[in-house]
Amino acid sequence: MATTTSKLILDYVFDYEAQAPNQVYLTQPLGGGRVEDYSWSRTVDEARRMAAHLLSLNLPRGARIAILSKNCAHFIIAELAIWMAGGTTVAIFPTETADVVRYVLEHSEASLLFVGKLDNWPAQQPGVPSHLPCIALPLAPATGFETWQDIIQRTPPLPGRPQRTPTELAMLIYTSGSTGEPKGVMHNFERVTRTTEASVAFVRAVLPAGTPMRVLSYLPLAHVYERAVLACASMVDGSTHVFFAESLDTFVQDLARARPTLFCSVPRLWLKFQQGVFSKMPAAKLDRLLKLPLIGGLVRRKVLRGLGLDQVRMAMSASAPIPPELIEWYRKLGLNLLEGYGMTEDFAYSHSSTTQLRATGMVGAPMPGVQTRISADGEILVKSPGQLVGYYKRPDLDAEIFTADGFFHTGDKGEYNAQGLLKLTGRVKELFKTAKGKYVAPAPVENLLNAHPYIELSLVSGVGQPAAYALIVLNETLRPKITDPAVQADVVQQMTQLLAHVNAQLPSYSQLRMLVLLRDPWSIENGCLTPTMKVRRTRIEAAVAPRLEAWYAAEGVVQWA
């Protein structure tokens, strides 16, 4: 057995195959309430058989092998097979358009593609070059490709403990492209393993002793957040039981099945959960009940049970800023919701809150082994054990992304408080000047707006305009009702009051001229959100540019787009 210091992530997997062969590792829903369990023995056996097949294709060492699939057991099993066969994984977001699919496959020079569980394969298939070999995973739509099942049935398993070297590339993670073409972030086995070990130790230190590790995988595995804190962490901590979500419609049942003890999500989904609660009980009434000595505890447990989060002992929010009021709301319910901060470029290993070290509006302190500093212009600079090797085919960017002493330019602005907790204050490139000549940071203003229960998302802009403005996406339970004049009047009144409340907290140069209420939501499908549900700021600003003059000329501080 490899020593702890020399172990790489595959060594952990082989150890669990030998030491806990019958332990259930993955649970895959099949529809209609049916599930299929994959023990460590079965997981690794299937991976070994597919690895043997991949080796038979005589692909070059380090060949890029792509996965286009929603989260499922065979995403993880396929990645293990790729690594055993000497390859590098390239995961593609399952919601990407054909153009982006083609770009990633061609840019990475992928030698093969695994096609898995997908909702829109006919629209994506034109992005797959006709000459590229493809294999259909279980749960894939009809593709005509050779299937995973057929291959593993006829292929003997690869024996032994296939080894990778520390400096070989484990994966290319393509950024979600919120500011242009996706970039391929290179991570090697050494950094992936050491970072994952540290992440697992961090989580275990926060969780109460003896807590079983149950997780639900539903955020995209193509994104660094889910890949690092769930997939890779489950390979290093072999006691983790990974459940998968079947679909959006079955999400509540999927949560009830998994009863997760660790639950990670993104701000937009935390907000949706809250809005779902408010649709059943008004916020003011719930707040009153929570304050009652005996009834409050019963209500907390009932709400968390209804959300499927009653067993959660550690909850995380990351990927984007979350309104402080939202974190406080969950904490009032008794959920240990912590905020963290990380990037694709540091393998999601940078900052995190803990139960003891946390403050509203702060994303936490540097995690063990992370060095940070704030540059002269307020940018957060990070040196993490999970630091990227570089951008694939873009050595020209190295001088731009690293300081002379090896710190990474995050592009985020921030500041530390006396306890060493970091507060994000905006993006360097998102700062804009109005006609008043002073820079406005949109993120803090958007956080103030997003705290209102009527709002799902907002975008603050106003480059060169007399004053900043905000585009508002109303929450999904409210949107169908806005044709009702009474509802419209209520929304306008609420937004007028909100605008006054927000502007009272801002310096004059950052104050908003108006709120523009959108009738249609932003989505991944219409190109306004990235696959990880970040706002595509530049695209949205360009789309509304022709209407700005009329909005600024109109009367009133709340307008309908």
What does the overall shape look like?
globular
What do we call the CATH homologous superfamily of the domain at 431-560? ANL, C-terminal domain
What distance lies between the first and last C-alpha atoms, to the nearest angstrom? 64 Å
Rg calculated over all Cα atoms: 24 Å
What does this entry look like structurally?
- The structure is a single chain.
- The chain is α/β, with parallel strands linked by helices.
- Among the domains are: 63 residues, Roll (Luciferase, domain 3); 130 residues, ANL, C-terminal domain (GMP Synthetase, Chain A, domain 3).
- It is built from 18 helices and 27 strands.
- Helix 3 links the parallel strand 3 and strand 4.
- The model has no long low-confidence stretch (mean pLDDT 93).
Describe the protein's topology.
Blueprint: H1 9-19, E1 24-31, E2 34-39, H2 40-56, E3 64-68, H3 73-84, E4 88-92, H4 98-108, E5 112-115, H5 121-124, E6 134-136, E7 146-147, H6 148-154, E8 169-174, E9 184-188, H7 189-206, E10 214-217, H8 224-236, E11 241-244, H9 251-258, E12 262-265, H10 267-280, H11 283-290, H12 295-307, E13 314-317, H13 324-332, E14 337-341, E15 351-352, E16 365-366, E17 371-374, E18 379-383, E19 390-391, H14 398-401, E20 408-416, E21 422-427, E22 432-433, E23 439-440, H15 442-450, E24 455-461, E25 468-474, H16 485-503, E26 512-518, H17 537-544, H18 548-553, E27 558-560
Parallel strand pairs: 1-11, 3-4, 3-5, 4-8, 5-6, 6-7, 10-11, 12-13, 13-14, 25-26, 26-27
Antiparallel strand pairs: 1-2, 8-9, 9-19, 14-15, 15-16, 17-18, 18-20, 20-21, 22-23, 24-25
